[in-house]
Amino acid sequence: MKSINLKPIVADKNLIAYCGLYCGACRAYLKGSCVGCRENKKATWCKIRTCCEENGFASCADCKSVELMECPKYNTFISRLIGVLLNSDRSACIKMIREKGYDEFAVAMTEYKRQSIRRK
After folding, report:
1. DSSP-derived 3-state class of residue 15
2. I need a surface site. Which of 59, 66, 114, 117 has the fewest CB within 10 A?
3. What is the per-residue pLDDT across 49-102, written as a single tens digit (0 to 9) for each?
4. Is residue 99 within a helix (H) or strand (E), and if so which, with residue range?
5. Dihedral pair phi/psi, residue 118, rounded to 5°
6. In the beta sheet, which residues pair with residue 22?
7. 12 versus 75: which is more confidently predicted?
8. Which residues touch 35 (CB under 8 Å, ≥6 apart)?
């Protein structure tokens, strides 16, 4: 049986994706098969990433122009479906970033060993 060497999960605010997920706890990132949202130059398909980069935002938590759940780039049918299937609540992640800051969010996700807050 082939063993998989995973990187350790560490608290690093640079591993927070634009949409609020924590890449630092993602299995693909930990296996070394993904560089994370910020470094993935091939992710031009992601409208959230493009919007945040164009506006100079570290994530959607920095956007004050539109309510998160009303944003057509953030709140799509596919993102809602994936959230249900993966038990992921990205909007709760964005809320936590707004309330506690990027560093504290990274620490919390490291402690939870999760890339997202679970849906309630």
Report:
1. helix
2. 66
3. 999 999 999 999 999 987 877 899 998 888 888 888 889 999 999 999 999 999
4. helix 90-100
5. -75, 145
6. 16
7. 12
8. 29
